[in-house]
């Protein structure tokens, strides 16, 4: 997916924090398991883009997302410029730095 034209509504795209690369080649299933564990440690995520109706959050802010919203099985992931981004609603943001 290439760069998008517009993010609509109260949507927020967040960068996935960089994880140290393993020298051991992991299966896709193992990679997913590691990512699920890493999600529990995410307390500051950087805002990549905001929707046209978002009022309090701007690109570059760091935010804390509700733990319930970080349920890995329900997180929407979008590929933009060969990088995965996470899609949330503005209402999922609890703290802004």
Topology:
Elements: E1 11-15, H1 28-39, E2 45-50, E3 62-65, E4 76-80, E5 83-89, E6 93-96
Antiparallel strand pairs: 1-2, 1-5, 2-3, 3-6, 4-5
Characterize this entry briefly.
The chain is mainly β and 97 residues long. It has one helix at 28-39; strands at 11-15, 45-50, 62-65, 76-80, 83-89, 93-96.
Structure, described:
This protein has 97 residues and is mainly β. It has one domain (11-17, 26-96). Helix content is 12%, strand content 32%. It is built from one helix and six strands, in the order βαβββββ. It has one helix at residues 28-39, and strands at residues 11-15, 45-50, 62-65, 76-80, 83-89, 93-96. Strands 4-5-1-2-3-6 form a six-stranded antiparallel beta sheet, with no helix packed on it. The longest helix is centred in the middle third of the chain and has 12 residues, at 28-39. The N and C termini lie far apart (29 Å). The model has no long low-confidence stretch (mean pLDDT 87).
Strands of the widest sheet, in order across it, are 4-5-1-2-3-6
State the end-to-end distance. Answer: 29 Å
Question: Number of domains in the coordinates?
Answer: 1
Mean pLDDT: 87
What is the succession of H and E elements? EHEEEEE
Tell me about the biggest sheet?
Answer: 6 strands, antiparallel
Structural class of the helix and strand makeup? Answer: mainly beta
Unreliable segments (pLDDT under 50, ≥5 consecutive)? none
Fraction of helical residues: 10-25%
In oligomeric terms, what are we looking at?
A: single chain
């Amino acid at each position: 997916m290439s760069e998008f034209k517009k993010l609509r509504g109260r949507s927020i795209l967040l960068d996935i924090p960089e994880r140290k690369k393993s020298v051991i080649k992991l299966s896709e299933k193992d990679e997913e398991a590691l990512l699920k564990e890493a999600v529990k440690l995410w307390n500051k995520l950087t805002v990549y883009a905001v929707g046209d109706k978002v009022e309090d959050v701007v690109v570059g802010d760091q935010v804390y997302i509700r733990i319930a919203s970080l349920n890995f099985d329900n997180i929407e992931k979008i590929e933009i410029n060969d990088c995965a981004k996470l899609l949330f609603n503005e209402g999922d943001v609890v703290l802004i730095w």
